[in-house]
Amino acid sequence: MPSGESWYVLVEENGYHGVGDVFSVSEVEYVDGGRARAREMALEIAKKYPDSTRYADYQRSVFRIDENALIVVLQKDRRKVSFRVTVGELVHTEEAAVEVEAQEPDTGEGVLRRAFRKKK
């Protein structure tokens, strides 16, 4: 494995958010062992996630979309739940920068008046 590679498995759950079906990331799992191991783990997760008895009596179908993505459909009668399991390489991460900008003292002018007052 080339130095610096970091492979993860991401689980994206499907939900309805008022604008249609939307996938949102619910799990992120680091995988030690490179991309091949991450693909193996993605399939393992697709076969077992979520770890609850809630869907024990649902039919589980796992579809490989491409070499790094799986769609899982859990179905019982007319009820259907789906989620996506994806393998991804972390290519960038950045710590949040917390900077507090100095503010002018409140003179009672209000925000808009201060913004448009003439500079001295």
Key features?
single chain, 120 residues, alpha+beta, 5-stranded antiparallel β-sheet, 2 helices, flat
Q: Could you characterize the architecture of this molecule?
A:
The chain starts with 6 loop residues before the first strand and ends with a helix. It has helices at residues 34-48, 111-116; strands at 7-16, 21-31, 59-66, 69-76, 79-89. It has one domain (7-91). The model has no long low-confidence stretch (mean pLDDT 83). With 120 residues, it is of the alpha+beta class. The protein is 18% helix and 40% strand. β3 (59-66) and β4 form a beta hairpin.
In short:
By secondary structure, the chain is of the alpha+beta class.
How many domains? The number is 1
What ranges have pLDDT less than 50 throughout 5 or more consecutive residues?
none
Strand content: 35-45%
**Helix/strand order, N-terminal first:** EEHEEEH
Q: Structural class given helices, strands, pairing?
A: alpha+beta
Estimate the helix proportion, in percent.
10-25%
Described by the principal axes of the CA atoms, the overall outline is: flat
Q: Determine the mean pLDDT.
A: 83
Kindly, what is the distance between the CA atoms of the first and last residues, rounded to a whole number of angstroms? 61 Å
Q: How would you sum up the major sheet?
A: 5 strands, antiparallel
Calculate Rg over CA atoms.
23 Å
Total number of helical segments? Answer: 2
Query: Count the strands?
Result: 5
Give, in spatial order, the strands making up the sheet with the most strands.
Answer: 2-1-5-4-3
